[in-house]
Amino acid sequence: MKFIASLSVALALSATCAFSALAANPKPDAVVKTKSIEARVFLDDRIKADAALAADCLAEGRKWLDKNAAEAAASRKQDPQFFKDGGWDFERKYEIRSVVADRYISVLRNDYMNTRGAHPNSDVNTILWDKADNKRISIRPFFTETADNGATMKAMVKAVIASLKAEKTKRGTSETATDEWFKELAPSLLRIGAVTLAPSTEAGKSSGLTFHYPPYAVGPYAEGEYVAFVPWETLKPYLTAEGTRIFGGARPKGDADRP
Predict the structure, then answer these.
(1) pTM for the full model?
(2) Which of 208, 199, 197, 194 is nearest to 236 (CA)?
(3) What residues does 122 pair with on adjacent strands?
(4) Measured between alpha carbons, how far is 107 from 30 in angstroms, rounded to an integer?
(5) What strands, in cross-sheet order, belong to the sheet with 104-114?
(6) CA 40 to CA 93: how far, in whole Å?
(7) Cα 42 to chain center, whole Å?
């Protein structure tokens, strides 16, 4: 009887672990699986709750799947020897980082790519979504001017580099805090990096801007990703009325530790 009871407990625990494993691995919202590639797209639950945002992200994600599936098939046809250990493995995740003024939604888009090379690669990009108009926007509406090499962008890139240098010092990688690694950063919205509105200790506000950089962007691959934070006070002289309305408070404790 003791053996039967123990077996029942073991089976129950096994079933619980199996259920937990399934729960920990959510079903992809879009997937492509061929001999050449297996690729998945995931939307977090908060994105799914916004029909327009979910549709926009999913449409982009499906195009990404199709593009990479075509490239994998072409690569397999040209160099089949590189697929002897299996096909490519790709994954894209969309995750809400912040919601500001119940209108502006910052989304992080993280990509994982394994083409069976020396090591997998990753990328990060961002989306700023305007709930009022159901469309993607830039940070332009929050600043009086954002011209290339203008005062706003010069102040912004200076603050970004200062933040990156501080982070490199914190990580013990200050030897790569050099102009060579920052040369791609320029006072231009298209060259300063992928940006999000940082959350704030003040409800409905943003504490500033966070810029997200994948491996290789501002440091060697081994250093991984970097996030630069620019507090709103640094950019206060350049804010529009809408910028003044949405920025405030401080960066929450722990936010610097998350991706």
Answers:
(1) 0.88
(2) 208
(3) 112
(4) 18
(5) 30-33, 37-43, 88-100, 104-114, 121-130, 135-137
(6) 8
(7) 12
